[in-house]
Design goal:
heterodimer, A: about 240 residues, alpha+beta, about 35% helix, B: about 475 residues, five-stranded mixed β-sheet, two-stranded antiparallel sheet, 11 helices, rod-shaped
Chain lengths: ~240, ~475
């Protein structure tokens, strides 16, 4: 097999490997419940925390964010969107997991969990409102797509690091100015560009997801409740 | 710059720029990767984690300082978190940093390329101007102006072209003057020849008639004797007129047969001083003063000005005797002919002064009014002749100017356009032929120099005798 053929196959092989790693997880199906107020609640979330790419992040000291996005579409093509957010941060001093779950209804739930096992149990028992349509969903079949992105740090930590990076560059320049150093001709010539360059570097901090999942289901809404048919797949 | 050349230059520049950017990118990739590794080295992260553990342990060992250890813990934890975020965005940050460096480098390189291109375009425009000037010069145009003021190579070449053009213009004017004078000389020669033959015959016949009248003495004292005396008086009168006509014919002959100068290397300053001393009393109404010029080599910069010349007159740069002149220029000139020029100029000054001061002398009871003629030897300082570029020494000899200034009434403006032409004179008919200045100029042109009127006004006139100074004759 030539190197070119290997190169061409590389993305496919990588996707297959990722799929294999996620296979046990994808076998699990999230369960949805429809509340009396019309809010769609995700219950029995798949055990993402045990995933090999996610687990090491949990104890990094940074806030691992689990971003749920849900879209339901009825037979007529009407589409409703919602989502939820779970943030987990390991408090290194107290050695506890601080968790915050924010549902589509705007309610927040905070907990402090002393161990990873307790965290996994908490995750299993989590009931997260993901869709608040403002009224009860019409009875019938809804196609449901649930996506989960695991981000290694929170938005606040991202912006804090960005400003720290900007400050570091600015402090370095200010220190040089305080020391009375004469700027070199090259530095003087590029001074107008420095602001743009600072911005360019400092905005390089991105919240790329560590791993993404996607489940597809069929939601059958009966007048008295909801049931879920499960077809789940992992997004690359 | 012509379009193909511009395109070629642009392509070359773009290729160079691209190569520079590529090399820079490769270098920056290596350097920025290494720089980033220093910042978020795994060992750094591990040590920070150990520090976190240490702070916790210290807080346990020293409960009183727990708050302090906690604060340190929080700071280290924050730093660790930031570094982990940076580590997570390693590729992005390094890529942005490289892009930033590339932008800076690209901007500088583009600016440098722009400056280079602009310089090339300017240089090409200057070369085009130079080429145009050379084309005009080769087409026979003179007094060509290149308009280059810079001192670089192109500027110096431009100045050389201008100096060459001026030298050509001078030579052309000199040639035209010589041709004009030659035509006048030929006309004078023919006139003199045509006049001399009948004049000689008339003089001989009249001489014989005079002799016959004297022989017939014994004819009686009556009416015949009276007629004979009358005829003798008439013959003397006609002879006198013929003599005058002969003098005019001689003037024609002198102008037509001007000898070629016999050049001998000599000290011009000493020659002028000697002339002033020898001819000091030749013109009763003139005082001759030989003033020294600022001590300088011909064609060089003049030195400090000496004291002013005595007596009224046009502004003079010198008044010290020429004998004191340091390093007088030694030139090749014909002493006899140059003396003739000075005599002609002094003659003109004397006659102009006498004509102007006739009434004044009468008012003074007949005492003649005396004027001053000052001779000043200077390096020629006219623009375009100096050695600004050093080109003059290669295009022509240096020039020394001998200024002859009088304090007479000046020259009427109407005469100025034809001043050096033969028969141009302000005197009454019969008082002069108007050949003096023409002869003087011809003498100087034959020397390779020139005679020009520097300035004239009611306060006097200044003539400038220009004499070339051979390089080997220069001090």
């Amino acid at each position: 097999m030539t190197a070119r053929a290997l190169l061409a196959l590389a993305p496919a092989l990588a996707a297959a490997a990722a799929l294999a790693r996620a296979a046990p997880l994808l076998a699990e199906r999230p369960v949805f419940e429809l509340g009396a107020d019309g809010v769609l609640v995700m219950a029995a979330a798949p055990d993402v925390l045990s995933n090999a790419e996610v687990k090491p992040r949990l104890t990094s000291g940074l806030t691992t964010s689990f971003v749920f996005e849900i879209a339901v579409t009825d037979a007529g093509g009407r589409k409703l969107k919602g989502g939820g957010l779970v943030e987990i941060r390991y408090e290194l001093w107290d050695e506890v997991f601080l968790v915050t779950a924010t549902g589509a209804d705007g309610r927040q739930r905070r907990d402090s969990l002393p161990s990873l096992d307790r965290l996994v149990a908490w995750w299993r028992g989590l009931k997260l409102p993901v869709l608040a349509p403002g009224g009860r969903l019409a009875a019938g079949s809804w196609r449901l797509v649930l996506a989960l992105s695991v981000l290694p740090f929170s938005r606040a930590e991202q912006s804090e690091t960005q400003s720290w990076l900007s400050r570091s560059v600015a402090d370095e320049r200010a220190a040089a100015a305080r020391a009375g150093e004469t700027p070199s001709p090259a530095a003087a010539a590029t001074a107008p560009l420095s602001g743009v360059l600072d911005l360019l570097v400092s905005t390089s901090i991105k919240r790329r997801s560590v791993v993404d999942f996607e489940w597809r289901s069929v939601l059958r809404v009966r007048p008295a409740g909801a049931g879920v048919g499960a077809d789940a797949e992992r997004r690359p | 710059m012509s379009p193909p050349r511009t395109a070629a230059a642009l392509v070359t520049l773009a290729a160079l720029l691209a190569a520079a950017l590529l090399l820079f990118e490769v270098g920056a990739r290596q350097l920025t990767g290494a720089w980033f590794t220093f910042g978020v080295h795994p060992e750094v992260l591990r040590q920070l984690e150990l520090s976190l553990a240490d702070q916790k342990r210290l807080a346990g060992l020293d409960p009183a300082g727990a708050a302090r250890y906690h604060r340190r813990f929080a700071a280290i934890e924050s730093l660790l978190g930031r570094l982990r975020i940076l580590e997570y965005n390693r590729d992005e940050v390094v890529g942005r940093y490289q892009a930033a460096l590339l932008i800076v480098f690209g901007a500088l390189a583009a600016a440098a390329a722009g400056v280079y291109l602009a310089g090339k375009v300017r240089q090409q425009a200057r070369l085009d101007r130079l080429r145009g000037a050379l084309a005009r010069l080769s087409a026979g145009e003179v007094d060509v102006e290149v308009g280059e003021r810079r001192r670089d190579l192109i500027g110096r070449v431009g100045a050389m072209v201008e100096e060459t053009s001026r030298a050509m213009a001078r030579d052309r004017r000199r040639l035209a003057s010589l041709e004009n004078l030659a035509a006048w000389q030929e006309a004078a020669r023919r006139q003199a020849h045509e006049m001399r033959t009948p004049l000689t015959a008339a003089r001989l016949d009249l001489g014989r008639l005079h002799g016959l009248l004297l022989v017939e003495k014994g004819g009686g004292d009556g009416g015949d004797g009276g007629r004979r005396r009358e005829c003798l008086q008439l013959a003397d009168s006609v002879l006198e007129e013929l003599d005058r006509l002969g003098r005019f014919t001689q003037a024609f002959t002198s102008f037509a047969r001007l000898p070629r100068p016999r050049l001998c290397r000599d000290d011009l300053g000493a020659f002028v001083a000697e002339f002033a001393a020898t001819f000091g009393s030749a013109w009763p109404n003139l005082v001759l003063v030989a003033a020294a010029a600022p001590a300088a080599a011909p064609g060089g910069a003049p030195g400090p000005p000496p004291p002013a010349a005595p007596g009224p007159g046009p502004p003079q740069p010198a008044a010290a005797p020429l004998a004191a002149h340091r390093g007088p220029p030694r030139l090749s000139f014909d002493r006899d002919l140059l003396r003739q020029v000075l005599v002609n100029l002094c003659d003109n000054s004397s006659q102009a002064l006498a004509a102007a001061s006739g009434g004044e002398a009468a008012a003074n009871g007949g005492a003649a009014v005396r004027g001053t003629v000052t001779f000043t030897l200077t390096p020629d300082g006219r623009p375009g002749r100096g050695g600004a570029t050093g080109w003059q020494d290669r295009t022509s000899s240096s020039v020394v100017a001998l200024e002859v200034a009088d304090d007479g009434p000046g020259i009427p403006e109407a005469v100025l356009p034809r001043l050096f032409e033969p028969y141009a004179t302000t005197r009454r008919v019969g008082e002069g032929m108007g050949l003096g200045l023409a002869i003087s100029r011809k003498i100087l042109l034959d020397h390779g120099g020139d005679l020009e009127l520097a300035r004239t006004s009611a306060a006097g006139s200044v003539f400038r005798l220009l004499l070339p100074c051979d390089r080997e004759a220069s001090p």
